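Issue 218. Parser rejects a valid record. Input:
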Amino acid sequence: MKHLIHPVNIPRKLALRHKKPVANSTKAWENFKYTKAVQDSLLPAQKNLCSYCEIELVRGEGNIGYHIEHIEPKSMRPSRTFDFSNLLISCFDSGYEISSSTLAPNPISCGHAKKSQFDPQLFIKPTDQNCESYFHYELDGRITPHPNLTVNQASKAEYTINLLNLNCRRLKRARYDMILEGQEIVNDLLDNPSALSDFAELELEEFNNKHQSFLTTRRQYFQVFLPI
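Output the parser choked on:
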């Protein structure tokens, strides 16, 4: 999970709509014609990564796309349907881009996995300043509660991981492949500190206002090789 700081400038049409009452949140959102402006504002703030799983957000043939996600479901909090601070971009367009199979059960993650199931006392939000500190990334690609958490904090991390399905086989495998590839490069560069630090810098650097996928996982494994 990557921390999200919302842009200061709220999309104008969204701000205007937020001032009006919402009777039917689903219908009101469907009738809102300015979602592209919201996406255009959030994508740079998220460095083009899903705030939940941190995969690259890409549309087009062969990609799963993305959608505007309500952190607190609009069905539970209609008053926050057009609240900019309650919105982020999550992976998957419709949620039906990948079919379930015996090889990849429950492949849907993040916003479309969360749906309207939401316990505000347990869910860790990407907008929480310390959200990244709740999670640890294992060598096999799993996300687990960070070992330094209290019992209560670990329960929140576990709830959030399960609700967003962040350990589905698809994401686990993608994280594992990235970690394995990175560690092989690290091993090859152990005798060359300068090249190793260059590698770490490239892994974590921002290009064209975008980060590589799984940024916080890369930080955990490669930030240690950056020069102090």
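Fixed in the parser; the record now loads. Strands lie at 66-70, 87-91, 135-137, 143-145.
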